Amino acid sequence: MYSNVFIEEVVAWVKEKLPGAHLNIENEFAWLWLDSQKKSICFVGNEKLHQISEMDFTYYITEFHWGGNKEASKSRLCSLLGVTQKIHARQCIVRRISKPEAKLFLDTNHTMGYASSYFHYGLFLKDELVAIASFSKGRRMNRLPENKKSFELIRFCNKNFYTVVGGLSKLIHTFEEEQKPGDIMTYVDKLWGEPHAYYALGFLLEQVTAPLVLKIAFHDAVPIHFTNKGNYKLIKHIS
Known about the structure:
2 domains; four-stranded mixed sheet
């Protein structure tokens, strides 16, 4: 059910970060126009989400994400607003990390938390973990030669309130060098906007999937049902 508290809280937080921001507050949602990017962010509860056309706004921050992982949601907002601390990937090194390390980092820094994965690659600035990419095991696909497998990029995120410029590219490049995939596929939630960053890395749009009903438990809490607006399915073909 729609919560006025969510809208009030997120609006107050945005105004604190951007004192000059002009937010449009409606009965059941609020939205912010980013003039420098010519894009908009909508803040909305899950029930109202599906009454809003996906073309009305560029990005969405939902009550579901905010309530599930508030700090990660604030971090994503900071990224959209351009007020994160920047790190360049060339300053960092990549190394494999354990499942417990990956789970702790993703539960803290990803709006959807950890998801079952097999390979976990971390990006480190000195000894600090600042970004992570998690991949599935390889799968045989008819579209690939017999000696090649397809892998899924399941999770990627930066440390809260940081942006590692070129981080995803460096993590994927290291994964490709070590695992020799035939291709890499991933899904991007339509709530996060067009996946231009993935296109720049060589991913191609394969399919736009229908909305999904997700049952998710944050930090072993009671599971919450959430319906997204669908996903972009992307594939990067490796030569």
